Amino acid sequence: MRRVKKFLFLLLAMSVLFAAVYTFTCYSLYGELPTLESVQREWKRDTQNFKESLNITQNQVDHSQAKKKIAAMTPLYENKQSVVSSLREALVKREKTIKLYYHAPSKESNELAKGLYHEAILPTSIGDEGDYIQYHIDQIKMTTSSLTYDEGYYYTLSYQVSFRTTDAQEEAVGRMIKEIIMPLQNKSTVDKIRFINNYITARVTYEQTGDDLCYTAYGALIKQKAVCQGYTLLMYRMLKEAGIDNRMITGTGISNGKAVAHSWNIIKIGHLYYDNDVTWNDSFRMNQYYLAGAATFAKTHQSDETFKSAAFQKSYPLSQTAYRE
Asked: Which residue ranges does the record assign to the Transglutaminase-like domain (predicted)?
């Protein structure tokens, strides 16, 4: 309390001294005492000048810091497609911490990181991309931060990812698949599908192993134990590597009157896609759900809402009848 009183007393004394000096100066120069209004004007002017000098200094500091931050953004991408490609590549390599930088000419959404992630996992013709990436991710956290400088927008896109498999495990899967499908190069599309379907049903055992590997293609191919997701992902990748377009579908399977979470593939032959449940082809009567038609398949399989949209059905038209050779 004493320190506060001393400070206030000192402030008052300085104010009185300033007023006295100002008064003496004016009287010396102009031969007259200043008015109260002129003293107040001088005080406001000096205060404003002081504030402006502080703002200039702060702006210089902010300008310098912004330049340093931007210089550290490397590589700095100038278009979204480059960001998407780099993000996809990092996900394929199973990088757990991903940070990308993007320079935008206009302001972007606060959900930019999320939007670019969804573009990165769109299906391609490559076996370890698209659905294969999406369903091998256990958890992902995405954040978007931005910096405005010289009318430009600089974004830092951060991803923390937990995968069900490692890069080394995926490399093992890739090597083995190449060996398996090598004899199929000159085979027809249907011959390739039949071979891959039968290869999986003959070697993989349906089993909940208690770890994440049973949900992966690695678990199905290398450990030869998996649940429906592992079966489906292996089918997805092997078909893609053999040059056959397909998608992984999630939903519910109905067996003995019970609905359970399930997954299967839709596989393209000609201009249409056929339902194929490689898990149940193994678990129930052999190949009962092999290249089935949607009309019959829907009695035991219900896809999630995402796959029922008009846009999806237009992109992936389903055959209503089973494939007949």
From this structure: 187-269
The rounded distance, in Å, linking the Cα atoms of 123 and 118 is 10
Find out whether 210 and 189 touch, Cβ atoms under 8 Å: no
- Cα(237)–Cα(92) distance, integer angstroms: 13
- With CA atoms as reference, report the closest residue to 191 among 294, 123, 291: 291
Sequence ranges of the domains in the chain: 76-163, 167-315
Domain 167-315 has CATH 3.10.620.30: yes
Reported as a single tens digit per residue, the pLDDT across 108-121 is 999 999 999 999 99
For the stretch 136-145, pLDDT in tens is: 999 999 999 9
* Integer Cα distance of 190 and 55 in angstroms: 73
Nearest to 78 by CA among 105, 118, 39: 105
| pLDDT exceeds 70 at position 254 | yes
For the domain covering 76-163, report its CATH number: 3.30.110
Q: Which stretches within the chain are classed as H helix?
A: 2-30, 36-71, 80-92, 112-120, 131-134, 167-181, 189-203, 217-218, 228-241, 278-283, 294-297, 310-315
At a CB cut-off of 8 Å and minimum separation 6, what does 16 contact?
none
